[in-house]
From TrEMBL:
NCBIfam families: TRAP_TAXI. InterPro entries: TRAP_TAXI. It comes from the Bacteria. CDD domains: PBP2_TAXI_TRAP. It comes from Ureibacillus chungkukjangi. SUPFAM superfamilies: Periplasmic binding protein-like II. This is TRAP transporter TAXI family solute receptor. Pfam families: NMT1_3.
C-alpha cells in the first residue's frame, strides 16, 4: 500500500513538472534567440526584448545563438518561442528541406520581415575579375559553415554557372573573410548583410576591391527558382568608389514565432514592434529600413501567425 502511495506521489510530481515545463515554453518568459554576440541580430534582439518586456508586462528574454539555422532548431525543440532568421531558412524548416529534411518544422510562423539581406560579392580589383563568372578557379569565401550566407553564396555561384568544386571554397565569417582578403589569400567574398554593410564598407575603404553585378540571367534564375529572393539595387555611391548602381539579389531577415504562442501575445509583439520603429532607430540604424508595408513580402509561403495577421489587417497591409 505504501509503495502504491509513493508511486502515485511520483506520478503527480511528474505531471506537475511537465505542466511547469509547458508553462515555461508557452507562458513566461518568452525566449527570443538572436545571433552571435558580434552581429546585428544579437544587439537588435536585446533591444526588442527590452521593449517588449517593458510594454507588454510579459517577460521576453533574448538569448545569443549561432544564428538562423540554430534558431529554428531550438524553436522546433521547444527551447525558444521567437527567433531571428532569414526567409530561406524558415522556408526550408517549414517544407522539410536542406538541414530540416529529416525533421520538418511545420509549426514555424512569420511575425514580420524586417530588412533585406543583400549579397555583396566583393572581389579584388586586379583587372582579372570583371564579373561573377570570372570567379571560376579562384578562391572564394562562402560564409560561415551552416549559415544562411553559405547557402545563398552557393546559389549565387550556381546561378552564374560555377559549380562548387570550381572554386577554392573557404567557410568563415565576415571578420575572418576580411582578414583573408587583406592577406591576399582569397579573391572574393560574399558579404551577405543589410545595406550598407559594414564589412563591405571596410573592405572597399581599405583595399582595392569592388562589388560585382549579378548577370540578368542569374537574377532571373535566383528569383524564379528560389521564392525568397528578389532583385535588389544598391544605389550609386552607397560605398566608396562606387559611381554606378549595383544589381544584386536579396532576401528578408525575419522574426519567426512558434504557432503555440497565443494569438493575443503574437498580436501585441507585432503591434509593439511596428509602433516603436522610430524609437528603435535611435539605437539601431538598421531599423531605418523597417517598413510594415513590406513585412509580409517575400515570405515564400511560410504562414503568418494569426496574431500577426490580425495586426496587418488592422493597418491595411492585408485585406
Amino acid at each position: 500500500m505504501k509503495g502504491r502511495f509513493i508511486i502515485t506521489i511520483l506520478l503527480c510530481v511528474g505531471l506537475l513538472i511537465g505542466c511547469q515545463s509547458n508553462a515555461e515554453r508557452y507562458g513566461e518568459p518568452l525566449i527570443f534567440t538572436t545571433g552571435t554576440t558580434t552581429g546585428v541580430f544579437y544587439s537588435l534582439g536585446a533591444g526588442l526584448s527590452t521593449l517588449w518586456t517593458k510594454e507588454m508586462g510579459k517577460r521576453v528574454a533574448s538569448q545569443a545563438s549561432n544564428g538562423s539555422v540554430e534558431n529554428l532548431k531550438l524553436m522546433s525543440k521547444g527551447e525558444a518561442n521567437l527567433a531571428f532568421t532569414t526567409v530561406n531558412i524558415a522556408y526550408e524548416a517549414y517544407n522539410g528541406e536542406g538541414t530540416f529534411k529529416e525533421k520538418p518544422y511545420k509549426e514555424v510562423r512569420i511575425l514580420g520581415n524586417l530588412y533585406p539581406n543583400v549579397s555583396h560579392i566583393v572581389a579584388v580589383n586586379d583587372g582579372k575579375i570583371q564579373s561573377i563568372e570570372d570567379l571560376k578557379g579562384k578562391s572564394f569565401v562562402y560564409g560561415a559553415a551552416g549559415s544562411s550566407t553559405e547557402m545563398e553564396s552557393k546559389l549565387v555561384l550556381e546561378a552564374h554557372g560555377i559549380a562548387a568544386d570550381e572554386v577554392k571554397g573557404n567557410y568563415v565569417g565576415f571578420t575572418e573573410a576580411t582578414d583573408l582578403m587583406r592577406n591576399g589569400q582569397v579573391h572574393a567574398v560574399n558579404i551577405y548583410s543589410g545595406v550598407p554593410a559594414a564589412a563591405t564598407t571596410e573592405l572597399i575603404s581599405t583595399l582595392d576591391t569592388k562589388v560585382l553585378n549579378f548577370s540578368p540571367e542569374a537574377i532571373k534564375k535566383m528569383t524564379e527558382e528560389y521564392p525568397w529572393n528578389f532583385e535588389y539595387v544598391i544605389e550609386a555611391n552607397t560605398y566608396d568608389k562606387q559611381p554606378e548602381p549595383i544589381i544584386t539579389v536579396g532576401q528578408y531577415s525575419t522574426i519567426v514565432i512558434d504557432e503555440s504562442v497565443s494569438e493575443e501575445a503574437a498580436y501585441e509583439l507585432t503591434k509593439l514592434l511596428w509602433e516603436n520603429v522610430k524609437e528603435l532607430e535611435k539605437s539601431f540604424s538598421i531599423a531605418k529600413q523597417f517598413d510594415p508595408k513590406k513585412a509580409i513580402e517575400g515570405t515564400a509561403g511560410v504562414p503568418l501567425h494569426p496574431g500577426a495577421e490580425k495586426y496587418y489587417k488592422e493597418i491595411g497591409v492585408l485585406e
